[in-house]
Amino acid sequence: MKVKLTTSQGPLVIELDQAKAPISSENFLKYVDAGHYDGTIFHRVIDGFMIQGGGFDKDFHQKKTRAPIPNEAQSGVKAGLQNDVGTVAMARTADPNSATAQFFINVNDNGFLNWGNPRSDGNGYAVFAKVLSGLDVVNKIAKLPTGAGGPMPRDVPKQPVIIESMTVVGTK
Q1: Residue 172 has pLDDT above 60, yes or no
Q2: If you average pLDDT over every residue of the chain, what do you get?
Q3: What is the mean pLDDT of residues 14-27?
Q4: pTM above 0.85, yes or no
Q5: Residue 105: closest CA among 162, 53, 165
Q6: What percent of the chain has pLDDT over 70?
Q7: Number of other CB atoms surrounding residue 63 within 10 Å
Q8: How confident is the model over 121-159, as pLDDT tens digits?
Q9: Phi and psi torsions of 57, nearest 5°
C-alpha cells in the first residue's frame, strides 16, 4: 500500500510493508483514513537523524489518538526492517508499547534505534514503511533552521512544515 504525503515543502510517497509490520501499518492506515494527519506538522526535525510528525497541529495542540499499539520492532528487525535512510518508523515514549499516531522518517542509518541494539533501550522503534519518492523533500525538511516552538524547547522548524494531506494512492 502506498500513501502520498502532501507537505508544505513538497510531496512524498511512502510504501507500507504490511507483511513485515502488519500492526504498525494497519494503525497508520487507520489514522490516514480518518484524516488525522491532515493539518499536522513535522514538530521535531534533527538534520542527520530524523524528521518526526503526526501528533500536533500548527498551533501545537496535540491531536487526540486511539489506544497505543504493541511494539513490533523485534519481529520487524528479524524480518529485515531496519531504521535505515528513508525508512518510516513509529515514534513512542520510553514505554515500548506506547506508539499511537506519531511517526518519523530516518534521514540517516540509525541502527541504534533497532530492536536489540544496546545503544538505546533495546526495544527498538518499529519500522513499517519506506520513502518511495520524495526523499529530496525529506532531506530539505531535515535541513530547515530549528529552534524552540510551542511547548518544545528545541528542534522545531522555525517555518512550520505542514502535512496538508495524506491519501492512499495505490497498492503494492
Answers
A1: no
A2: 97
A3: 98
A4: yes
A5: 53
A6: 99
A7: 16
A8: 899 999 999 999 999 999 999 999 999 999 999 999 999
A9: -85, 180
Q: What DSSP assignment string belongs to the chain? A: -EEEEEETTEEEEEEE-TTT-HHHHHHHHHHHHTTTTTTEEEEEEETTTEEEEEEEETT-PBPP----B---HHHHHHTT----TTEEEE---SSTT-B-S-EEEESS--GGGSTT-TTTTSS---EEEEEEE-HHHHHHHHTS-EEEETTEEEEEESS--EEEEEEEEE--
Task: Give tens-digit pLDDT for 41-66.
Answer: 999 999 999 999 999 999 999 999 99
- What residues contact 156, with CB distance under 8 A and at least 6 apart? 43, 44, 45, 146, 147, 148, 149, 150
Distance CA 48, CA 107 (A): 6
Distance in angstroms (rounded) separating the CA atoms of residues 50 and 7: 16
| Gap between the terminal Cα atoms of the chain | 5
Contact assessment for residue 127 and residue 81, using Cβ atoms and an 8 Å cutoff: yes
User: HSE (CB half, 13 Å, CA atoms) of 111?
Assistant: 3
Kindly state the cell numbers that stand for 88: 518510516
Judge whether 3 and 130 are in contact, CB under 8 Å.
no
CA angle 106, 4, 146 (to 5 degrees): 45
